[in-house]
Every structure is written in C-alpha cells, then in structure tokens.
User: Which sequence fits this backbone?
C-alpha cells in the first residue's frame, strides 16, 4: 500500500519539480495580475482628489448673489449653469432634476416675468447660435416651466449641484494617452492586453516545463 | 465541418439577398416601431443555419451529448469558449452599464476578462487532467460524496437558471425590437425558439454552432463601429482607439462633431454638454463607490473561474495542453468584443444627448446607437441578430450544463444508477424544458439590467463552486466535511443576498436592509462570500483531520499534479 504522506498535495508545499516550477510560475503571474488590476485601482483612490467642474465654481459665486440682490447678468449666468447641469440628462435623479428645474423656472421668471415661451426666455438669457448655446437652448425648451418668484424653497440645491459637479481627478485621470484619459485607457484597453499576455506566458512556460521534465499529457 | 462551412456561408448570402433589397425600403426612422422585415429575415436565416448545423452534427449518445466526443482543437474550442461566454450581458449589457454608469461599467469588462487568468493558471489544465464530464462529477468524485455530487448538480442548475434569466431578458428585448411586439410576448416567443434549438442539437451540434456563432457575433458587433466612427469624424481605422478623443472631450463637452453627420437620425444634435462623470472613477453622480467597483470586479473574476458551463468546456478538449491553449484563444476572442463594448456606450452618449430623446432602454443601447447613427438597416439588422446569437449560444450552453447536471449527476448518479442511456437522454431533455420554463417565468418579472442579473450568477458560482474546485485541486487536505462546510457558508450567504434582493424588488423591507444592500449586494456578494467559504472549508477540514482517502490523494498527486508515483 502506498505511503499516505507521499501523496499530499498543497499549493504552498510543492513536492515534485513540476509542481515547484508550476506553483512558482502561478505565484508570479497572480501577483502581477493582482497588482495590475487592484493595485492600480487603489492607486487611483489614493491619488484622487475631489475636483469641481467650472460650472460648480460659477454656481458657488452666483448662488448667494441671486438670493440677495439678483442682477440680470448673474441670473443669465445662473440660467446657463443650471441648463448645463440639466444637460447630464438621465444621470440626474428625477427628484434632483425637479429641484434644478424649479431653480431654472425662478431664474427665468426673475429675468423675464412675462415670458411665456422658451424662445423668449432663451433670448433673455442671451443664448445664441454658436458654441454650446444651441445645446443649452434644447435643454431650455425641454425643461422650460414658469412659476416661482424666489429661491426660498431651494435650500437643497447646493448639495444637489455638488453631487453632480464634483469628480475624483488626479494626474492619472488628467494625463492623456492615445488621446484617452490615462486611467480609462489603462482599465478599458491595457488590462485586457495584459491578461492575454499573462495567459500566453503561462501556457508557453508550462509547455516548456513539461518538455524539460519529459511530462506527457 | 470545414467542408460544410462554405455551403453555410453561401446559404447565408443567398438567404440574406431578399433582406438586402427589403432593407433599402425599410429605413428606420424610429428606434422601436413595428415589425421589421429585414432583421426578421436575417434572424430566421441565422437561426435556421444554427439548427441545420445542429442537425448535421447531432449527438449520437450521452458521451457526445455531454462532451462532444473530445475532438475539438484549441482554436475551435477557444471560439466555442468565447461564443459560449459572450452572452447578451457582453453584447448588450456591458455597453448598457457603461452608458448609465461610465467608469463603473469597466468593472464588468475587467472582471469578465481577468477571471480567465485565474481560470487558466489555477484550473483549466488540472480540470482536464482530472477527466470528468461535469462540474458535479468532479465534486462528487473529489469529495467522495454522493450528497455533494447532488449538491453540485443543484448548484449547477441554480446557477444556470440565474444566468439564463439575463439572457432571456436580452432575447426578449431583441425579439421585441424585431417583431414590434410587447416585452412579455417577446420573452415567451424567444424562450420557445431557444428551447427548440437546444433540444434539436446536443453539445456536439452546440460546439460546432458556437464557432459559427462566434464569427457572427464578432463581425456584427464590430462592423457598425467603423461606420459610426467615420460618420462622427473620429479615427475610424481603429475605432477602439479613435473613441479615446471623444471620452477625453466629454469632460469639457463637444458642441460639434467633425464628421459627415452632425445630427442623429431623429434630427437631434450629435453633441454633448460637459459630462466628466462618464470617464471619472467612482463618481457620486452615478452613486457608485470605489468599494463597489473593486468588490464587483473581484466577484466577477472568481465567478468566472467557478461557472459550471465554463468549466465544462475543458472536458471537450483532448488534452490538458489543449485546455490551456483553448483558454488563451478563448480570452483573445473574448477581448476582441470587450475592447469594443465601451465604444458603443461612448457613441451612444453623444448620439442620444438631446433631452428630447427621453429615457432609452439601456439594454438595447447597442442597437439604438447603430440606428441613431443612421447606419444601413441591413447592418443594424445584422447587429440585432448578432445580439440574439450571443444570447442563444450562451443559453444553449447553460441549458446543456443544467440539463446534464439534472440527468447525469442528479438522476443517474444519485437517484437511478441503473438508468439506460435512452432514459438519461430523456431526463436531459425534460431538465432542459423545465429550466427554460422557470427562466421564462423569472425573466418576465424584469428584475434588473442584463449585466446585473448575470452578475448574481457569478457571485453564486464564486461562493459555491469556485472554492470546491480551488481547494479540491490544490489542497488534498480538503475533505468531505470541509467541502460541506464551504458549501453551506457560500450557499448561506448567497441565500441571504438573493432573498434581500427579491424582497426589495417586491417592496418588502427586511431587517438591516441597508447593511445587506451595501455589503452583500446581489451583484457582488462573493467579494466576502467566496473567501468565507474557503476559510470554512479549510477550517473544518483541519478540525476533522484532513482525512481525504489515500486513493484520491494519490490520484491528485500523480495524475493532476505530475508527482511521480511510488508504485
């Protein structure tokens, strides 16, 4: 009868030369795999800083102003800010969209109390036909409502705006590679290439080990 | 088989000819609309071809039915792996998730490819050397337990059903789009067609079909991207690189594309206001966190190495070396599609940014994108047919895995060892029909996005099957008691996560629902479930003396790990 201890198998205690070579190879490849996938994401977490869009910076300046003494230029700028945020479309939760829409309605009413059409409001906001203005016009005609004369019921608006206008950025997201944001290229494209390379390396290395040790399968 | 391929291609071309002419008169001006003749013709042609190939390669007995005669080359097997793998979740679901959640969706892209590295280095060759027919076969044999074999069979059935639900949802969406009928009816019709197809051909037919399906899936998926990139004015020679400029520019917005079109087919601007949240990691705008990304990616990777229908593909290659190289080829073929899925989501963003577009069904975004770009209807139709092919190839593999678990592992090896081959085949077919009916019923409930639903199956496999294979192969000390402990812990965590998910869907609030939703989320509960199952298996094996029978240890050492025999 065979000696029971002779046939123990453990990844951490390889016995035959084939096992030792195989487990060494696996260990190296799995470490590379883990560091490349999860190490990079942890790095992304570590170096990332919350950075706000210019739209939010403008909002922070404009919001206190329009609440105290709304000047036409400030209202026009705020309308642009709100329309730009609404441009995130389905990303925005329904309840948040309603809040932004209400703020837009108040802004338009303050700018042009008698306005009954989106076109009239667009003119008052100063939306033209170049740059992003046609897109803002599309947003305005879609979200246009009237009503409301002040911002008193919109205290949650700053928090909502922050939710959609602050993003985790770092040199990894702001560096360009093949015109991609680097982190995006790394995750969406490079990692897949790396996985294939790791698999080829493993398959070839095992073939080599088996040839060297004369193992037939 | 090689001799039949030219005839099949000729058959496809001839049959598509009427569709070509009909296509010019059937240009889509709406995204859904009524019955679409061209896609319907192409779909019928492709499905007929699959059935024809299935009949030409009909299984002659149970061995052929389950393991395709073990005569498939690594490249062919790689194509079959890729086709088997690339389901509605890959074809439709990934772009849908990225369209809605941006960078968060890349967890699916990385998770569903990175898992193959684990599968290759830890399992593929060893599984083939172990030499069984099904996942439950291995579990029952390695852990010398009929009970565990039955548990393995039940888990395989449950995982296959869970996985199929997402596929049936995809099939339903595409049948809805093609036939212009409501979703529920589309699921019923699509389910009936895929069931008929699977019943007509066994795995031999399925394996051959999968190679043809792969070609259809990959060509139909990639071809539109070159055209859309060209139309939108991005580097179309390699759109997988060309769309990078678009992703970068999303941060500041794009007010005008520089291509030959500036509007989508509905007359809305192909432009976008600033949306940095598309590319930026774990963005609050999407309500996603870094923890979710990492947990999801990890769970999907472990699940990849634990899915019975994937593992079973290694039994159909002649040698362990072929199993290894089939994974390499399989991963390469899979990545060809996975490099492209995010491109669709980016193109979809810019083509559907008008507020007038309303809320689109995310899971159909791939087809909508091609439509919105005004691509020739025949190509859009081919794309939709490719989506159906992707779902079909996976469903047939899943139903086969589930049916063989039911017939071979549960009925023959556990309940009735004296059953004849004819009875086993009958039981396999009964199992297939029962599973299809159950899956159809669940798919009608619309429990979530395709990719999400499929992720549940991955976590389930990672919590239950993966630890059994990992420890079963790499540690001879893992014994029957340890295996039971691992299964109980893994399955227990899965039951908790899935129960909370179902309860939540039906509006029932269970205790600590927020805690469970965060830490045992149905999409990624394996991040903790799988490690705990492994710990339980190891701990109980130690406590009970690591008493794996000597002959199993010897088999593992000599046959699976190349230790020299001593006698």
Assistant:
């Amino acid at each position: 009868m065979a000696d029971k201890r002779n046939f123990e198998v453990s990844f951490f205690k390889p016995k035959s030369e084939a096992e030792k070579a195989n487990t060494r190879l696996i260990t190296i490849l799995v470490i590379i795999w883990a560091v490349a996938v999860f190490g990079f994401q942890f790095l992304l977490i570590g170096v990332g800083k919350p950075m706000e869009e210019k739209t939010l910076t403008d909002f922070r300046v404009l919001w206190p102003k329009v609440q105290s003494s709304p000047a036409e230029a400030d209202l026009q700028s705020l309308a642009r800010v709100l329309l730009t945020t609404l441009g995130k479309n389905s990303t925005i939760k329904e309840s948040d969209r309603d809040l932004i829409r209400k703020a837009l309605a108040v802004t338009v009413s303050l700018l042009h109390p008698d306005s009954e059409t989106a076109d009239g409001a667009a003119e008052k906001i100063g939306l033209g036909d170049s740059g992003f203005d046609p897109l803002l016009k599309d947003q305005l005609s879609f979200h246009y409502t009237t009503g409301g004369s002040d911002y008193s019921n919109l205290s949650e608006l700053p928090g909502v705006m922050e939710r959609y206008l602050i993003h985790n950025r770092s040199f990894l997201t702001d560096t360009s590679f093949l015109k991609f944001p680097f982190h995006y290229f790394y995750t969406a494209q490079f990692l897949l290439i790396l996985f294939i390379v790791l698999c080829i390396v493993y398959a070839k290395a095992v073939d080599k080990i088996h040839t060297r040790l004369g193992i037939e399968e | 088989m090689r001799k039949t391929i030219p005839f099949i291609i000729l058959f496809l071309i001839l049959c598509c000819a009427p569709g070509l002419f009909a296509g010019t008169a059937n240009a889509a001006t709406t995204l859904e609309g009524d019955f679409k003749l061209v896609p319907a013709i192409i779909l019928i042609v492709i499905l007929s071809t699959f059935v024809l190939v299935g009949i030409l390669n009909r299984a002659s007995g149970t061995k052929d039915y389950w393991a395709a005669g073990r005569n498939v080359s690594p490249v062919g097997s790689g194509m079959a792996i890729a086709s088997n793998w690339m389901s509605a979740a890959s074809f439709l679901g990934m772009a849908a998730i990225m369209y809605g959640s941006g960078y968060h969706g890349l967890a699916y892209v990385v998770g569903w490819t990175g898992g193959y590295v684990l599968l290759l280095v830890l399992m593929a060759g060893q599984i083939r050397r172990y030499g069984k027919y099904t996942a439950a076969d291995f579990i029952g044999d390695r852990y010398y337990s009929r009970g565990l074999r039955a548990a393995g069979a039940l888990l395989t059935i449950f995982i296959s059903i869970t996985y199929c639900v997402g596929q049936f949802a995809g099939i339903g969406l595409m049948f809805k789009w093609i036939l212009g009928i409501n979703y529920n009816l589309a699921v019923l019709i699509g389910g009936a067609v895929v069931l008929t197809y699977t019943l007509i051909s066994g795995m031999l037919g399925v394996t051959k079909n999968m190679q043809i399906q792969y070609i259809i899936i990959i060509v139909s998926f990639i071809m539109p991207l070159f055209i859309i990139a060209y139309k939108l004015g991005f580097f179309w020679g390699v759109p997988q690189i060309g769309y990078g400029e678009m992703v970068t520019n999303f941060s500041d917005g794009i007010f005008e594309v520089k291509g030959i079109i500036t509007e989508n087919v509905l007359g809305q601007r192909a432009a976008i206001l600033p949306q940095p949240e598309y590319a930026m990691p774990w963005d609050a705008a999407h309500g996603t966190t870094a923890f979710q990304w990492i947990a999801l990616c990890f769970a999907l990777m472990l699940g990849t190495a634990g899915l019975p229908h994937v593992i079973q593909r290694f039994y159909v290659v002649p040698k362990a070396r072929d199993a290894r190289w089939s994974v390499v080829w399989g991963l390469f073929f899979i990545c060809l599609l996975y490099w492209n899925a995010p491109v669709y989501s980016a193109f979809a963003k810019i083509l559907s940014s008008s507020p007038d577009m309303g809320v689109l069904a995310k899971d159909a975004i791939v087809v909508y994108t091609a439509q919105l770009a005004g691509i020739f209807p025949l190509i859009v139709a081919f794309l939709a047919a490719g989506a159906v092919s992707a779902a079909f190839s996976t469903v047939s593999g899943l139903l086969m895995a589930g049916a063989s678990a039911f017939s071979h592992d549960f009925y023959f090896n556990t309940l009735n060892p004296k059953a004849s081959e004819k009875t086993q085949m009958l039981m396999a077919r009964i199992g297939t029909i029962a599973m299809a009916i159950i899956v159809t019923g669940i798919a009608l409930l619309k429990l979530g996005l395709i990719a999400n639903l499929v992720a549940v199956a991955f976590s389930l496999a990672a919590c239950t099957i993966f630890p059994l294979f990992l420890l079963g192969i790499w540690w001879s000390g893992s014994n029957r008691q340890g295996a039971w402990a691992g299964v109980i812990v893994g399955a227990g965590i899965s039951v908790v996560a899935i129960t909370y998910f179902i309860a939540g869907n039906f509006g029932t609030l269970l205790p600590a629902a927020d805690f469970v939703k965060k830490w045992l989320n149905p999409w990624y509960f394996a991040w903790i479930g799988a490690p705990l199952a492994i710990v339980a298996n190891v701990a109980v094996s130690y406590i009970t003396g690591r008493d794996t029978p000597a002959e199993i240890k010897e088999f593992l050492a000599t046959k699976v790990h190349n230790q020299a025999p001593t006698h």
About this structure: Chain B touches chain A through 82 residues (CB under 8 Å). The first helix of chain B runs from residue 4 to 24. The domain at 36-446 of chain B is CATH 1.20.1730.10 (Sodium/glucose cotransporter).
